[in-house]
Design a protein that fits this description.
alpha/beta; Spo0b-associated Gtp-binding Protein, Chain: A; about 425 residues; 2 domains; binds magnesium ion; binds guanosine-5'-triphosphate; five-stranded mixed beta sheet; Rossmann fold
Length: about 425
């Protein structure tokens, strides 16, 4: 399964059914009046977030989504049937924008949230509506209206509270593997991780917090070096970052600065995200070397201002599990484990935004610029219509970590949650689609 985190789709609400012209023709009723029924409403197109989906892959193969039209009216004032809504499933964490303007229409963070993206057209009126004293036999009716048509830009931003960053080989995947049940690929060559991995780390309170392990960053990533830096969008929603620096490196300060420079180049507020510098693989060093490197990182790494509450760099070894408790203690303190998670925001503000000012019919396939080239700037999480919400995952870290130093089993290229690729049934609810 491929990991696709951006997609462009066209959605079109159904056309309303036409009203009709009909007259009552019944025995013993000499002058039956107008009896043409109204057309049914065209169906709406909705997006719904589904926790079983982890990628926008399906939209690579299907891009046009048109909802059912309403049925035209019938005789005897019978109204035509309205179309059933077309529900398109998307992964949790999908941002939805109008692809022409970049305006944010909604952010589907919680499972089961729905966003109306194209309203169906109104049904037309049958001639029964036009009966008046002046005109006892109206032949007037109205046609159904076209449904709305929009071009949407979907962007998946994974929902994790803690992001793990660093250069390739720093030990990021190894850390998530020892802390959670995630089993990402681990190897002693750079760019082992190609897509983000999610792992649920159990909090002292029992529930889980999602950590995201992302590919390594190298100098020039902002200009496309290595795997580039686009995957940083998956840590945009995190509340804190763990910046891992390979303890066995010759120059830990230079390593740290390379990644910090890339964070700044990426922007989107990531450079100001609270973070903790973590020196890894310290079982390979003696205590003097550890102290010296920690000191160097503290002195030359980040200014104290960049680390508002996380404090001095920390030494860990995933191999011997040294320092992991101290690391987690700091993470929980920063996340405020005792604080209740904020209430998930209602989507009321987002639903129906697409309903304003319907576009002309048939425009669904019209070309609009794909905003990949930065025609507009994505907004920061705090300005989103739906407040940032935290994922709640009941599953904890039941299985023990990987048997170090053996590389855990390779895990495909899908985004994994706790080491398991999530079911990826089609994102389209076929039962509702003609
Ligand atoms: N000795 C020792 N080796 C470690 C430790 N943690 C990780 N490693 C090794 O470092 C190498 C890289 O580890 P990964 O976890 O794949 O590193 P990564 O940061 O995810 O690398 P990319 O995915 O390429 O960015 C592997 O060979 C690991 O076995 C540790 O605590 N001690
Ligand atoms: Mg990795």
């Amino acid at each position: 399964m491929q990991f696709i985190d951006q997609a462009r789709i066209a959605v079109r609400g159904g056309r309303g059914g036409d009203g009709i012209v009909a007259f009552r023709r019944e025995k013993y009723v000499p002058a039956g009046g107008p009896s043409g029924g109204d057309g049914g409403r065209g169906a709406d197109v909705l997006l719904r977030s589904d926790p079983n989906l982890q990628t926008l892959l399906d939209f690579k193969f299907k891009r046009l989504f048109a909802a059912d039209d309403g049925v035209r009216g019938g005789p005897n004032r019978s109204s035509g049937a309205s179309g059933k809504p077309l529900v398109i499933k998307v992964p949790c964490g999908t941002e939805v924008r109008d692809s022409r303007t970049g305006i944010l229409l909604g952010d589907l963070t919680e499972a089961g949230q729905e966003l109306l993206v194209a309203a169906g057209g109104r049904g037309g009126l049958g001639n029964a509506h036009y009966l008046s004293n002046r005109n006892r036999a109206p032949e007037k009716f109205t046609e159904g209206r076209d449904g709305e048509a929009w071009d949407l830009w979907l962007e998946l931003k994974l929902l994790a509270e803690v992001g793990i960053i660093g250069q390739p080989n720093a030990g990021k995947s190894t850390l998530i593997a020892v802390l959670s049940a995630a089993r990402p690929r681990i190897a002693d060559y750079p760019f082992t991780t190609l897509v983000p991995n999610l792992g649920v780390v159990r909090r002292p309170s029992g529930d889980g917090t999602v950590f995201a392990d992302i590919p390594g960053l190298i100098a020039g990533a902002a200009r496309g070096a290595g795997l580039g830096h686009d995957f940083l969008r998956h840590i945009q929603r995190t509340r804190l970052l763990l910046h891992l620096v390979d303890g066995s490196s010759e120059d830990v300060v230079a390593d740290l600065q390379v990644v910090e420079a890339e964070l700044r180049a990426y922007g989107h507020g990531l450079e100001a995200r609270p973070r903790l510098v973590v020196l890894t693989k310290v079982e390979l060093l003696d205590s003097e070397e550890i102290a010296e490197r920690l000191e160097a990182l503290a002195a030359h790494g980040l200014s104290a201002a960049a680390l508002p509450s996380l404090g001095a760099p920390l030494a860990i070894s995933a191999a011997t599990r040294t320092g992991l408790d101290a690391l987690l203690a700091l993470v929980w303190r920063e996340l405020g484990v005792d604080r209740p998670a904020p209430e998930p925001g209602a989507l009321a503000g987002a639903a129906g935004v697409a309903a304003a000012g319907g576009m002309a019919a048939g425009g669904a396939a019209a070309a609009g610029a794909i905003p990949a080239g930065g025609a507009w700037e994505p907004e920061e999480p705090e300005t989103l219509l739906v407040p940032l919400t935290r994922p709640r995952t009941p599953r904890g870290t039941s299985a023990a970590g990987p048997s170090f130093p053996e590389a855990p089993e390779a895990a495909g290229s899908a985004v994994l949650l706790d080491g398991e690729p999530l079911a990826n049934d089609s994102s389209i609810d076929h039962s509702l689609h003609h």
